[in-house]
Amino acid sequence: MRKRSRLSRFNVASLALGLAFLYLPILILVIYSFNASRLVTVWGGWSLRWYHEFFGDRAMIEAAWMSLKVAASSASIATLLGTLAAVALSRGERFAGRTLFSGMLYAPLVMPEVITGLSLLLLFVALDAERGFWTVTMAHTTLTMCFVAVVVQSRLGSLDRSLEEAAMDLGCDPVRAFVAVTLPLIAPAIVAGWMLAFTLSLDDLVIASFTTGPGSATLPIRIYSEVRLGVKPEINAICTLVIGLIAVVIVIASLASKLSSAQGESAAPL
Amino acid sequence: MAEELPKMEAAAGVADVETHLALDQPLLRIEGVAKSFGTFRAVDGVSLDIRAGEFFALLGPSGCGKTTLLRMLAGFEAPDEGRILLGGKDIAQALPHERPINMMFQSYALFPHLSVRDNIAFGLKRAGMARADIDTRVAEMVALVKLEGLEKRKPNQLSGGQRQRVALARALARRPQLLLLDEPLAALDKKLRESTQGELMELQRRLGTTFIVVTHDQEEAMTMASRIGVMNAGKLAQVASPRELYEAPRSRWIAEFVGDVNLFEGEFKLRDGHRLVIATRDAGTLVVAEPRQPTGETRLSVAIRPEKVKLSRRGPVSEAGRETAINQLDGVVADICYLGGSTTYKVKLDTGGIVQASVANSARLDADAYSLSQHVVAWFTPDDCVVLPP
What's the CA gap between A86 and A153, in Å, rounded? Predict the structure, then answer.
């Protein structure tokens, strides 16, 4: 039995190669962000020079700040709307057009970003909205809302419906039953959904570049335009910081969803 | 048996029950309640009275509407037609939290994020009870269901039996006028189920709360309930004591649903005093006791419970037996099913039918046990037969 559970040499090799393919470029990027040399491809010893440079680069800092603001606000709005949509879909009475609604909710999951970006741009132009922070935030909300809805809906689906009924039976009106019982139980999924929306928004280049306006470039847009003029080692430092931030968020999100499923075991009907 | 039967039937006489109810008002009166889901009539015109302090069981196969009826009592479904009167007040359209009724759910529905104590206290907090009173009541409930020392545990740290007790304590904590139990023992294993049945009955007697339990398990219903309502296809087929339900079922369906039964279809031939002679297709001519309510039809069914069919090698053994056992059927043993406490023999009758006889294994070394293909006589008295509509 012990022998069987061990990995064969082939397994180890394929695992190592797969992981190397995924993470070696990132590792190299992280190492080179500490490069002292001005040339991106030549190693010149360890240094924090480029991090220093980045924190002195006002335009870059502004873009990073803009990205964080957009990510935080769009994630919050998307979490609110996505949770409401998930509750409506899994708890509400069967309303007319329910299937159409759920289909349309999930469409952005599979829609090419270029199309989403372009159509939103056309909408904003038609509305004559001034493009900037709010247009990017709204665009990102439409993109990330469906992810939140998927996460929250799957959690709601695994919850025993009689939990809410038990709360009502014990003296709660429907709203109180939701707040006292359902909300605490789906909270981990809501947190995970927010984190997911946050990282998606932080990553996005395509939709942001369609919907942003002058003076409100997000970090990916800024980096992309810099890279077109040639890669500066400073970019490596920025990317390393972003990777660190996203890693932290993903770890928190997965911990939250783990907590959520641990509670789900007892919530599921036997 | 022959002396007991008339007494029982008199006690359960329909006229007696109705005058009794008119004198003291029932706690719960269900009047012509109906509920449809789409085109499916889940509950189809049910009327029922439940007295205060009663332990009532709703029994039926899955999909018969018993759970829907229970959910209408709890307020999770609103009836399309009819009234539900609790203490004379119509609560049919009231929301669950507005009813002095609590329910114990089949899945228990314990709140996984709350401790045992907080689960039990949940309904008390919502009722706006003072903290000190809540503590007293929770302690009382914990003692009642014997969960001392587990107050701080979360539901997922409890065994199935303990969860069941928490659910019961939580439902009883608000001291409801009526407690609804949806398949309360379905999730427990057999031994635990039997001991819990006894505990539930004891608890119900001590508290005097009216219990309505929904179950598909007839033994459970018979053990616990003082009255049983059998449901089939959304309708109440019969409401009776466990004994009456078993010994005097009102239809073939009930006779077959509750326990095992031999059924023979036949035609009414003649009346002889209080006895009817019926020519059956599979079991020859049978003499049966006249039913209390004549069906008025010539086509009839005769039902006999397997344990009332006696077997012998050469007809009735005792003197008394020879006099009363008018029905004697010859046949051969076709199948033997040993069940421990009893043995069920399937006897292939010479007239073509099969009759099941359940014989108690009253001696350990039973030299008289019958063997396969052995010729036997199956016999039973007219009083052991129940005449039913076809």
Answer: 5
